[in-house]
Amino acid sequence: MPLVAPNEGLNDQLAYILKSTISGVTDWELMLFINNATLTQATVFADLSEATFGGYSRVTLTRASWTSPTIIADKAVSTYTTTPTTWTVSSGSETVYGYAIITATSSVIRYVEKFASPVAVVAGGILGVLPRVTLTTAP
């Protein structure tokens, strides 16, 4: 019989992963990627090409800024703040395919999401991302 993670403890587990203060655990970073990568369990940081448009830089995701997880449709869900992180394009143009949440040192992917449709950004444009992490038992 497969392991089941009941809703009763899911919020605490997700809060521990994302939000709780843990000695020695550093904040992660949010990055955008510009290649049409196929995302699988085997995806690694080297598979992603980071955005380079003017006005772009990685954003540090402080642990305390994740929302307290809530159960939605039998899943614990948390977002990084309640408003999207935005970048204003000061120069250049690129097509952004998605974002990744990575460790600040050694650049290991913790979570990665491809947008439903790629986003073309040009000078003067604004791109916003609201990272969302969901935890549940696999079907």
Architecture blueprint of SSEs:
Layout: H1 7-18, E1 28-33, E2 59-61, E3 70-72, E4 75-79, E5 85-88, E6 94-103, E7 109-121, E8 126-129, E9 132-135
Antiparallel strand pairs: 1-2, 1-6, 3-4, 4-9, 5-8, 6-7
Shape, please?
globular
Share of residues in helices: under 10%
Q: Which series of helices and strands comes N to C?
A: HEEEEEEEEE
**What is the count of β-strands?**
9
Q: How big a fraction of the residues is strand?
A: 35-45%
| Overall mean confidence score, pLDDT | 95
- The Rg value, from CA coordinates, equals 16 Å
Low-confidence stretches: none
Number of helices: 1
Task: Describe the structure in your own words.
This protein has 139 residues and is mainly beta. It has one domain. The protein is 9% helix and 37% strand. The protein has one helix at residues 7-18; strands at 28-33, 59-61, 70-72, 75-79, 85-88, 94-103, 109-121, 126-129, 132-135. The strands form 3 sheets. Strands 2-1-6-7 form a 4-stranded antiparallel β-sheet, with no helix packed on it. The protein has a 3-stranded antiparallel β-sheet with strand order 3-4-9, with helices on one face. The longest helix is centred in the first third of the chain and has 12 residues, at 7-18.
